[in-house]
Design brief:
The protein has 230 residues and is mostly helical. It has one domain: MetI-like (MetI-like fold). Helix content is 83%, strand content 0%. It contains 9 helices and no strands. It is flat, with a radius of gyration of 22 Å. The mean pLDDT is 83.
């Protein structure tokens, strides 16, 4: 009972909640803009990787292959450190921009594979049908293949967004103030018990965010399935 009373006390204390909401704001900003960057980058990379082999596409395909191999094969924490202390080790450069770029690039590699798999999962007969109707390859891709691929990749993209939100908790490792760092500051004691309550409160915030996103994804999937029936 004492545990829950302390949680209530933390929620009802303006000073503590101000710290948590400051951390929540940074977590939200990083997650949203990194997700947008990841979706854009991942889609471009996916389109390059599935493009027909040609002399002009040889270099872009090689670059994309290296990008996917390196990003998916190294830890996110290491990528964040390299961005913060090597690539953007510029005095006064905003840490939040560094974090957005680092997480966006990382997310893009996974989104690219999800998008590529979604496009490849569309039956080849759909493409052949478009060509039989005299549609150019680009129109067939945009009007027939991609709309079907989107329905296939939404669950995977949703899982990637959820993973991205949770991964942002490591930005405290480069001194950024986020939800996790807020809990550490509020705890501020020398024993495990002093961190238990704020960490629990922050965990509830993460849980609420992930649950809301999961619910949104399910609603989108349900509407798309309903559209198929119609």
């Amino acid at each position: 009972m004492d545990f829950f009373s302390k949680i209530f006390e933390l929620f009802s204390t303006g000073k503590y909640m101000e710290s948590i909401f400051e951390g929540l704001k940074n977590t939200f900003i990083i997650s949203v803009f990194a997700a947008l960057l990841g979706l854009l980058l991942g889609t471009v990379v996916a389109m390059v990787t599935i493009a027909r082999p040609s002399a002009a596409m040889k270099l872009p395909k090689a670059i994309c292959k290296i990008y996917l191999t390196v990003i998916r094969g190294t830890p996110m924490a290491l990528q964040l450190f390299i961005m913060a202390y090597v690539v953007f080790a510029i005095r006064g450069f905003p840490q939040i921009i560094t974090a957005i770029i680092a997480f966006g690039i990382n997310s893009g590699a996974y989104v690219a594979e999800n998008v590529r798999a979604g496009i490849m999962s569309v039956d080849i007969g759909q493409t052949e049908a478009g060509r039989a109707l005299g549609l150019p390859s680009r129109v067939t891709m945009l009007k027939i293949v991609i709309p079907q691929a989107i329905k296939n990749v939404i669950p995977a993209i949703g899982n990637e967004l959820i993973a991205l939100i949770k991964e942002t908790s490591i930005v405290s490792m480069i001194g950024m103030y986020d939800l996790t760092f807020a809990a550490k500051v509020i705890g501020g004691g020398n024993n495990m018990a002093s961190y238990l309550i704020p960490m629990t409160v922050v965990a509830l915030f993460y849980l609420a965010i992930v649950y809301a996103l999961t619910l949104g994804i399910k609603i989108i999937e349900k509407r798309l399935r309903a559209g198929d029936k119609n």
